[in-house]
Write a structure and sequence with these properties.
With 226 residues, the protein is of the alpha/beta class. It starts with a strand and ends in a 7-residue tail after the last helix. The chain is built from 7 helices and 9 strands, in the order E-H-E-E-E-H-E-H-E-E-H-H-E-H-E-H. It has a single domain (2-220), classed as NAD(P)-binding Rossmann-like Domain (Rossmann fold, 3-Layer(aba) Sandwich). Helices cover 38% and strands 18% of the residues. Helix 1 (11-22) crosses helix 6 (191-204), helix 2 runs parallel beside helix 3 and helix 6 packs across helix 7. The structure holds NADP nicotinamide-adenine-dinucleotide phosphate (NAP). NADP nicotinamide-adenine-dinucleotide phosphate binds at residues 7, 9-13, 33-35, 52, 71-75, 87, 111, 113, 150, 152-153, 161-163, 166.
Length: 226
């Protein structure tokens, strides 16, 4: 499987990249970002790009992939709706339109978040924008498209969030992870589980197109077993 990964330098993207590089069934990974990942690997190529609303200069590089894991995103904290919409709606849609036109067999997986509003009309800005992005992406002519809605994502294997707010939350919450995972499994997942689940869903599909946190954990089988 050839994988295109957006957001590979982010907290979740780093986790997804790690699982892709470990999975023997993933032949190559192209990481597209405004900065390259720090990880080096024989299967990995980095493509640094500046304008995430325009892919015309790199469209040929974005051809020949079986799966796209779209992990580029931001926290809405302190952002205007227009700025948040540009990153969380316009950027994924611009990329996905190019990919759908050039990769007939592609499975596209969009990283959203728990609470995204499928009606696209709710009062909560981030949820409304993410819900609108989800709906638009699911309507594109991919072979298959899925939305992942994790809740709290625990960083594993030394991965750290780039978002200061999240880093602080993880530092405070770290001692409680084992308790949360035991008693609140519907609301906690890990970077490893999200990465594994993306690979499994790209390979085998899923019973539902929108995977909530519990669905992600349920499909996240270990490497070598999928
Ligand atoms: N962390 C969680 O617990 C959690 C839970 C549920 C949902 N989510 C959602 O998952 C997504 C990713 O979260 P994360 O924690 O991995 O975020 P993160 O650590 O802040 O990483 C964000 C990634 O997106 C890229 N990016 C952000 N803005 C960009 C822009 N304008 N142009 C190009 N690239 C841009 C970053 O690239 P650079 O490295 O170049 O900055 C980085 O690769 C977000 O939408 C978040 O809301 C996160």
């Amino acid at each position: 499987m050839n994988v295109l990964l957006f957001g590979a330098t982010g907290m979740i993207g780093q986790g997804v990249l790690r699982e892709c590089l470990l999975d023997p069934g993933v032949a190559r990974v192209l990481a597209v970002g405004r900065t390259p990942p720090t990880t080096g690997h024989a299967k990995l190529r980095a493509l640094v790009h500046e304008d995430f609303l325009d892919y015309s200069a790199i469209a040929d590089d974005l051809t020949g992939f079986d799966a796209c894991f779209f992990c580029l995103g931001v926290s809405s904290a302190g952002m205007s709706e227009a700025d948040y919409r540009r990153v969380s709606h316009d950027i994924p849609l611009a990329a996905a339109r190019v990919l759908a036109a050039r990769n007939a067999g592609m499975t596209f997986i969009f990283l959203s978040g728990m609470g995204a509003d499928s009606t696209g009309h709710g009062r909560l800005m981030w949820a409304r924008v993410k819900g609108q992005a989800e709906n638009a992406l699911l309507a594109l002519p991919f072979r298959a498209a899925y939305v992942f809605r994790p809740a709290f994502v625990q960083p594993m294997h030394g991965i750290r969030s780039k978002t200061r707010l999240y880093r602080a939350a993880y530092a405070i919450g770290a001692p409680l992870y084992p308790l949360w995972r035991r008693f609140l499994p519907k609301y906690v997942t890990t970077t490893e589980q999200v990465g594994r689940a993306m690979i499994v869903v790209a390979r085998h599909g899923a019973p539902t197109r929108v995977l909530e946190n519990a669905d992600i954990n349920a499909v996240a089988t270990p490497a070598g077993s999928s």
